[in-house]
Write a structure and sequence with these properties.
By secondary structure, the chain is an all-beta fold. It has no helices and 21 strands.
Length: 203
């Protein structure tokens, strides 16, 4: 907590990562909070493996200046599939904004859940602020919240988030969406969010 993650050169990969643990071992009760994440190549915060009781809150994720990146740039990536029973994951009160990249053909996401059939206590993603697209005149694909899970398992709870997609693309026809469901028939619990997309294309 209370870290400033920033450097003069691009950080290759992830700023903060919870990876897979050894068989039978859990990352239990961890807290990621009050961090300022200014520069990364792929994911600002990446969560995989078994993480019961994890809380991610009050983190500020944005780029202070244009930088290069991988072709997939995500503020918070959640990739756990199971074993959170009894102590679910809570991701809340985070700010994700201005992920500015000069990389061509990039996909930018504020929050991305890619976890097949998630089981256990629900993932709660709530009270987060996401603003993307401003000052990006290239042609990225932009998703504020992107959920790619399954038609079975435990639905993710997505409550009270504010997502704003803005700016003008100078060319191309790539999509921008404040909220995206990547897979047909997946389970979701989406309530009381503000989704607003004003991005336009001059091409």
């Amino acid at each position: 907590e209370y870290n400033l993650i920033e450097s003069g050169a691009t950080v290759r990969g992830y700023a903060i990562s919870f990876g897979y643990s050894a068989a039978g071992q859990l990352h239990t009760g961890n807290i990621v909070r009050f961090n300022q994440i200014r520069r990364f190549n792929d994911n600002g915060i990446r969560i995989t493996g078994t993480v019961p009781g994890l809380e991610v809150y009050n983190n500020d994720i944005y780029f202070a200046a244009l930088q290069t990146s991988s072709i997939s740039l995500t503020g918070i990536h959640f990739g756990s599939t199971s074993s959170n029973t009894g102590a679910g994951v809570k991701i809340y009160n985070n700010r994700i904004a201005d992920l500015l990249t000069s990389t061509a053909a990039v996909t930018i996401r504020g929050f991305y859940q890619f976890s097949a059939a998630f089981t256990g206590t629900p993932v709660m993603f709530y009270n987060n602020f996401i603003a993307l697209g401003k000052d990006l005149t290239s042609n990225p694909t932009i998703y504020g919240i992107d959920v790619n899970t399954s038609a079975t398992g435990t639905p993710t709870q997505i409550y009270y988030n504010s997502v704003y997609i803005s700016g003008t693309a100078s060319a191309g026809t790539n999509n921008s969406m404040a909220f995206r469901r990547s897979v047909a028939d997946l389970l979701l619990d989406v309530r009381d969010n503000s989704f607003y997309n004003t991005r336009t294309n001059t091409a």
